[in-house]
Automatic annotation (TrEMBL):
Protein name in UniProt: 60S ribosomal protein L10A
Coiled-coil boundaries: none
Species of provenance: Phaseolus coccineus
The organism's place on the tree of life at top rank: Eukaryota
Signal peptide: none
Amino acid sequence: MSKLQSDALREAISGIMGDSKEKNRNFVETIELQIGLKNYDPQKDKRFSGSVKLPHIPRPKMKICMLGDAQHVEEAEKIGLDYMDVEA
């Protein structure tokens, strides 16, 4: 059972998003959320994994360069990323 209700979390995030629209800033603002799990040892228990698709691009101007071997270079070419070969 969660001590933090999802409705309260959504309301807090909506408030933060509303405040950010009032005063425009010249940088990308972020929201960080820390979660503490009781009786969980991250060194011993490696059972949490997953990904979440964000509704918005977090950094629209971010450039990525893939550094890898021949297989990674080929994958980067297919998806249009800049790349560098470690063997070159």
